[in-house]
Amino acid sequence: MQIRYVNPLWERRDLYAFHISQYQTYVGNKVGEDFGQIRLQREDGFIHVLKKADIVSIDNSEVDFKIPEDKKISVVGSKGDLYEVERVQGIEKCTCPAFKFRKKCKHLQELAA
């Protein structure tokens, strides 16, 4: 898989004494994906975590990932505990123990509702 990505240094390219290209290309195997990120593993084992909002093309096909609006809510857990669930720039987080260990939890479904 080949991903063309907007270079995060591009907007401040005038501050550098060397050439900054507008795009970077990453090659590897996709090892994970969630709503806001794609994880790409190179042959040497290094994993790139790429924000979907900054991806221009995948395998030379243009893509446009729609990032939903930011949202923050409070959710009551099954045992009565209160958890903060939020989405910022397409990346979802929860303060519950399950999310801290697995990066997934049932409280994230409340953001879609």
Quick structural gist:
This protein is mainly β. It has helices at 97-102, 109-112, and strands at residues 2-6, 23-27, 29-33, 37-41, 47-51, 55-58, 61-62, 71-76, 82-88, 91-94.
The amount of helix comes to under 10%
What is the general shape?
Answer: elongated
Amino-to-carboxy terminus distance: 33 Å
Please tally the β strands and state the result: 10
Structural class: mainly beta
CATH fold assignment of the largest domain: SH3 type barrels
Supply the CATH architecture of the largest domain. Answer: Roll
Any idea what the radius of gyration is?
A: 17 Å
Described by its quaternary structure, the protein is single chain
Q: What strand order characterises the main sheet?
A: 2-1-6-7
Instruction: Spell the H/E element sequence.
Output: EEEEEEEEEEHH
Largest sheet: 4 strands, antiparallel
% residues in beta strands: 35-45%
Number of domains: 2
Query: According to CATH, what is the class of the largest domain?
Result: Mainly Beta
Give the count of helical stretches: 2
**Poorly predicted parts:** none
Return the average pLDDT rounded to an integer: 87
Describe this structure in words.
The protein has 113 residues and is mainly beta. The chain is 9% helix and 42% strand. The strands form three sheets. Strands 2-1-6-7 form a four-stranded antiparallel β-sheet, with no helix packed on it. The protein has a three-stranded antiparallel β-sheet with strand order 3-4-5, with no helix packed on it. A hairpin with a 3-residue loop joins strand 3 (29-33) and strand 4. The longest helix has 6 residues, at 97-102. The radius of gyration is 17 Å and the shape is elongated. The model has no long low-confidence stretch (mean pLDDT 87).
